[in-house]
Amino acid sequence: MLNKFIGIGRLGQDPIQKTIPNGTEISNFSVATTEKYKKDGEYIEKTEWIKAVAFGKLAEICNSYLRKGSLVYIEGSLQTRTWDDKEGNKKYTTEVIIREMKMLDKKGTTSESGNENRKSEEDDVPF
To answer: What CA–CA distance (Å, rounded) separates 47 from 22?
Structure first.
């Protein structure tokens, strides 16, 4: 069996930093992946939001360097968690447990808020 997720996208918000009681640091964030395709002569853009979680040293790196708008490559496995809310309803969430993360922004293109001074990826396309 294989459980592997690979994706490239931009963070929708700054990472949420947590530390669990045993001292392990956690980083939670969502990544937007966008697919473009042509349908009936029109270009359609579909965005999926992927919840992602990193632990330990990788979480420390994510929390220190990633910001809203950061372009990242993430690789990991999918995990679904369940819990009961305050009203007793069962809730589910599926997230990527990150094993590898690479920052893909060009040096100097990410500001403190994460999205100023950023060129569109399409600006680099020669046609």
So the answer is: 36
CA distance 96 to 80: 9
Burial class (CB in 10 A: 0-12, 13-18, 19+), 7: middle
Provide the domain limits for residue 33: 5-38+45-110
Question: Contact at 8 Å (CB) between 97 and 53?
Answer: yes
Report the residue count for the chain.
Answer: 127
- Residue 108: the pLDDT is 58
The whole-angstrom separation of Cα 127 and Cα 116 is 25
Q: pTM (2 decimals)?
A: 0.76
> How many domains would you assign to the chain?
1
The torsion region of residue 8 among left (phi > 0), alpha (psi -120 to 50) and beta comes to: beta
What CATH code is carried by the domain that includes residue 83? 2.40.50.140
Q: Which residue has better confidence, 106 or 108?
A: 106
